[in-house]
Amino acid sequence: MAKFRADPFAQKVDLGVGVFRDLSGNTPILDCVRRAEQTVLKSQTTKSYVSAAGREEFNSAVEELVLGSSHPARRDRRVRTLQAPGGCGALRVGAELIRAASPTAAVHVSDPTWGNHVPLLGSSGLRLQRYPYYEAAAHELRFDAMLERLDQAPAGDVVLVHACCHNPTGADLAPQQWQALIELLLRRRLIPFLDLAYQGFGENLAADVAAIRQVAEALPEVLIATSYSKNLGLYRERVGALIAVCEDESRADATYSHMLQIARSIYSMPPDHGAAIAACIFADPHLRESWISELAAMRTRIQDMRLLLSQKLRAVTGDDSFDFIRAQHGMFSLLGVSTAVVDRLREQHHIYMTGDSRMNLAGIMPHNAAYVAESIVAARTAVMQAA
Ligand SMILES: Cc1ncc(COP(=O)(O)O)c(C=O)c1O
């Protein structure tokens, strides 16, 4: 980020930072958020403390958004939800909960995974292990290798899975792969921890949680960390939640009391402002409708750039080797090139991405897609020739 800011080149391109950008390059405040914020400001009468659980109406709206209104686990009163400071807060409380319940359990994370998973989960003291997930150079999921590895995990271990729009690969499991994973988790008695940071960025709000709903129907215990940073653009307001699906109602009560205790011991209570805005949007039919269409516009903007960049790359290379970009989901894809190519893109072409060649597709604009495509191919050729 510092190098990008310091670069004086007028056409520099930032594909590194993990936030949505509109066609003007801004990370906008959604219109529904502005309107809800006005309502919140007008109706708020106190800044007194909230509880460790956060807002009740936010928590139940989150449950409904993720699991649906008639999910059997909700009907059986086996679900408990805690408002948390963003998806990061939810992941951390989840890690502490696992650690309290089962100190020797390992958490299996995908290779590769979002860089923050390691410190967020690992700082709780839990052991982390990696399962094969994606081969960047071949642009392919390693699903068989993933199942093979998880098949060796001892009962009670936890498997962290990105629910949709995998960060950093953009490669998600297909429905039949989710089914096979569910069967393995059941058979091996492993506990899924689903990270949902991009609901609505893949296909739509409902389709993006279809797999979560199936997992929560099939398995007795599931943890879900949700974030509203991206899909409501509430990044700095820190809005998220931890959902625990438990085996029965009494275990759910005991789990919830642990979750509250953990929250109290780390940050006491979650920030209220963003959750108040989110709850207002979830509850008001007009605001919700506006959210759904603004979310669709963000998703379309990213899908358009996926298509455009892959077309430009097709034009430069004359082949379909970058078509994977168009087929993947969410904000990110791994270009699948070496750090030498990433360095050259930055130094010679003023295009910035993370060292693992993760691109934020929302950093592409219609006017620079051709430049990015030409630069990628030029940098790759130059590094190949130098080798
Ligand atoms: C995979 C994944 N999980 C969780 C998060 C947490 O986001 P936040 O704490 O900003 O809500 C992010 C944010 O980038 C993410 O990419």
Provide key terms for this protein.
387 residues, alpha/beta, 7-stranded mixed β-sheet, 14% strand, binds pyridoxal-5'-phosphate
Describe the structure.
The protein is of the alpha/beta class and 387 residues long. It has helices at residues 2-6, 31-43, 56-67, 72-75, 86-101, 117-122, 143-150, 175-188, 210-218, 249-266, 273-283, 285-317, 324-327, 339-349, 369-386; strands at 13-14, 79-84, 106-111, 127-132, 134-135, 140-141, 158-162, 191-196, 222-227, 240-245, 332-334, 351-352, 358-360. The protein is globular, with a radius of gyration of 21 Å. The two termini are 29 Å apart. The model has no long low-confidence stretch (mean pLDDT 97).
Instruction: Give the structural class.
Output: alpha/beta
User: What would you call the shape?
Assistant: globular
How far apart are the termini?
29 Å
Number of H- or I-type helical stretches:
15
Sheet of most strands: 7 strands, mixed
Helix % is 40-55%
Which ions and ligands are bound to the chains? pyridoxal-5'-phosphate
Low-confidence parts, pLDDT < 50 over ≥5 residues? none
The helix/strand series, from N terminus to C terminus, equals HEHHHEHEHEEEHEHEHEEHHHHEHEEH
Spatial ordering of strands, largest sheet = 2-10-9-8-7-3-4
Secondary structure elements and pairings:
Layout: H1 2-6, E1 13-14, H2 31-43, H3 56-67, H4 72-75, E2 79-84, H5 86-101, E3 106-111, H6 117-122, E4 127-132, E5 134-135, E6 140-141, H7 143-150, E7 158-162, H8 175-188, E8 191-196, H9 210-218, E9 222-227, E10 240-245, H10 249-266, H11 273-283, H12 285-317, H13 324-327, E11 332-334, H14 339-349, E12 351-352, E13 358-360, H15 369-386
Helix pairs in contact: 2-11, 2-12, 3-11, 5-10, 8-9, 11-12, 12-15, 14-15
The structure holds pyridoxal-5'-phosphate.
Pyridoxal-5'-phosphate (PLP) binds next to helix 5.
